[in-house]
Specification:
Layout (H helix, E strand, L loop, with lengths): L9 E5 L4 H13 L6 H14 L4 E3 L2 E4 L11 E11 L9 E8 L3 H15 L2 H9 L3 H7 L1
Parallel strand pairs: 1-4, 3-5
Antiparallel strand pairs: 2-3, 4-5
Helix pairs in contact: 1-2
């Protein structure tokens, strides 16, 4: 997983007033390192607008992404731990406080990124540690 997530790709106490701002914040972590273009953030938000909150994959956890496109420059994962949970419109899993974004250049890497991230998210202890991290460095080490 460390191939896809950099220290600059994680942030704690992120402010977001709604799900769009939450995706924007998580996407910005990838944008600032050049992994994606601004278009990819737009595509992630559009995907939720068109398909509903399918990206909310577990209690309090969203995995924002869009199809591989020209807006993706490298395979990467980011995590924004929100200061305050926001609603994505998921009856079962709202509100969300952990917002992952991932970018994949192709279908194979798209599947591999989901698999790797799933290993982390299936570990309840690790998810609790992510929520309780007090610094970006600690958050990065947990992942």
């Amino acid at each position: 997983m460390t191939n896809w997530i950099r220290r600059e790709h994680v942030a704690i106490s992120v402010k977001a007033n709604n799900w769009q701002e939450a995706i924007q914040a998580s996407g910005n972590l990838l944008l600032h390192t050049g992994a994606i273009t601004e278009d990819y953030i737009f595509q992630m938000i559009q995907s939720v607008k068109e398909n509903g909150p399918y990206i909310v994959i577990g209690p309090g956890i969203a995995m924002a992404h869009a199809r591989p496109s020209e807006a993706v420059r490298e395979d990467a994962i980011s995590l924004a731990v929100l200061e305050r949970s926001v609603s994505f419109g998921s009856e079962e899993n709202d509100p969300v406080d952990l917002v992952f974004s991932f970018s994949a250049k192709g279908s194979d890497s798209h599947i591999k990124l989901i698999e790797q991230l799933s290993h982390v998210l299936l570990d309840d202890d690790k998810v609790t540690q992510l929520r309780q991290a007090e610094s970006e460095e600690e958050l990065y080490k947990i992942i």
